[in-house]
Amino acid sequence: MGQGFEDKLNQAAEGLRPPPLRDDCFALPAGVDWTPVDEALDMLRGRLHPVVGQETLPLSKALGRVSANDLKALRANPPQANTAVDGYGFAHASLGDGDQVMPLTKGRAAAGIAFDGTVPEGHALRILTGAALPEGVDTVILQEDVTLGDGAIAFRAGIKPGANTRKAGEDVQAGEVILREGRVLTPADMALCAAVGVHEVPVRKRLKVAVISTGDELREPGQVVEKGQIFDANRPMLGGLVERFGYDLVDMGRVPDDRDALRQTFDQAIEKADIILTSGGASAGDEDHVSALLNEAGAMAEWRIAVKPGRPLALGLWNGTPVFGLPGNPVAAMVCTLVFARPAMSLLAGGKWQEPQGFNIPAAFEKKKKPGRREYLRARVRDGKAEVFKSEGSGRISGLSWAEGLVELPDQAAHITPGTPVRYIPFSSFE
């Protein structure tokens, strides 16, 4: 079905967009107060879906993009049986007992230059790495294991049938699925696609992420600051994360604590982006305009998550565009982005749910943790042990630069002493 109309179907697919998110996609169940981290992640995973359309790109332009469909091999790899070494090829069934002396057939087989003919039984042919096996050859002996004479070779007994050869399709069969939908294409994936003849790839359009900082107190680095004012650290950090994740950054700048100004910025952002990340204004105070606007729109849920640092996370839709209202504190904003926004953005971009890969290593610190909240400590690994930053203060931005990952402590009470196994998640695991 559709055969002969592939070009038209691809063109039509490029205009397709998934359905919008439902207005209640972030709504919490009745009676929920503090939401455990795992429950919050499960709810995000179950309620989000891709919000970007599709396009078809040449393979050379597809690095880092999300595959929109399963990709199948157009031909086998290797396409023909071939040799893995430089040597001499022959039919194993023609070998006798003991050491062998075998006459050579004129000519040779090389990669890209096939031998035109059949190798007679009991004869050998010079063959070079990557060459297709000609008729009459199923085994290759290394040239180092051969004595070359005048028109003949000699070698010891014991070579096994099929030695030093590769079977046709032993890596990939024609028609086999090589990459699944939702795969972010790597350089290795591009090599695999090329090897099996895939030269165009249907991919998801790149997710566009708008980043907004809110607050009267914020100024741009380099500007003159007055008493009570601070430089905006969140926007450069969040913008850097967005680009590191492989998405398109839409920098919407700073917005003062003015509801009308924020409303106007939201309206502009949804014309340019698929998702909005804000920092600050996500709680329920007088100047928390992100929460107030999402409440006005009737699509707001304040997720009070049992996490440290973080807790309040305002989630909602602005005219169908998802909004993640992150905490204003840079440490909490980064942790919430990595733990919650990162996997959510992956789903919205058409990819798979991002499950960060951590591993247990001995602690190089001591800490008594109270029950009730999942905790994330800025950390790095030295001498095989997890070190944590000298202060847990959420205003200590230098700790984000010092760290190379996070130590994740469980919801339950814990007493960590040097040598206690702890879960360490490198920052690279969130990419």
Structure characterization notes:
Catalyzes the insertion of molybdate into adenylated molybdopterin with the concomitant release of AMP. It holds the Pfam family MoeA_N. It catalyses: adenylyl-molybdopterin + molybdate = Mo-molybdopterin + AMP + H(+). Its EC number is 2.10.1.1. The chain has three domains: 22-53 and 206-348, Molybdenum Cofactor Biosythetic Enzyme, Chain A; 82-166, Molybdopterin biosynthesis moeA protein, domain 3 (Beta Complex); 359-430, MoeA, C-terminal, domain IV (Beta-clip). It is elongated and about 95 Å long. It is 20% helix and 30% strand. The chain is α/β, with parallel strands linked by helices. The strands form eight sheets. Strands 1-19-21-22-18-14-17 form a seven-stranded mixed beta sheet, sandwiched between helices. A six-stranded mixed beta sheet has the order 8-5-7-6-10-9, with no helix packed on it. Strands 20, 23, 25, 26, 27 and 29 form a six-stranded mixed beta sheet that branches. The protein has helices at 6-14, 37-47, 187-195, 234-244, 259-272, 289-296, 330-348, 398-402; strands at residues 34-35, 54-58, 71-72, 82-83, 87-90, 100-109, 124-127, 139-142, 147-148, 152-155, 165-166, 177-179, 200-204, 208-214, 218-219, 230-231, 248-255, 275-279, 300-305, 307-308, 312-318, 321-326, 359-362, 367-369, 374-382, 385-388, 405-409, 414-416, 421-426. β9 (147-148) and β10 form a beta hairpin.
Task: Give the averaged pLDDT, no decimals.
Answer: 90
CATH fold field value of the largest domain? Molybdenum Cofactor Biosythetic Enzyme, Chain A
The low-confidence runs, each spanning 5 or more residues with pLDDT under 50, are: none
Domain count: the total is 3
Count of beta strands: 29
Apparent shape? elongated
Structure annotation, total helices: 8
Strand order of the largest sheet: 1-19-21-22-18-14-17
Helical amount: 10-25%
Based on secondary structure, the structural category is alpha/beta
Using the CA coordinates, give the radius of gyration.
30 Å
The major pleated sheet works out as: 7 strands, mixed
The CATH superfamily of the largest domain turns out to be MoaB/Mog-like domain
Distance between the termini: 39 Å
CATH C-level label of the largest domain: Alpha Beta
- Estimate what percentage of residues fall within beta strands: 25-35%
- Which architecture of the largest domain does the CATH hierarchy give at level 2? 3-Layer(aba) Sandwich
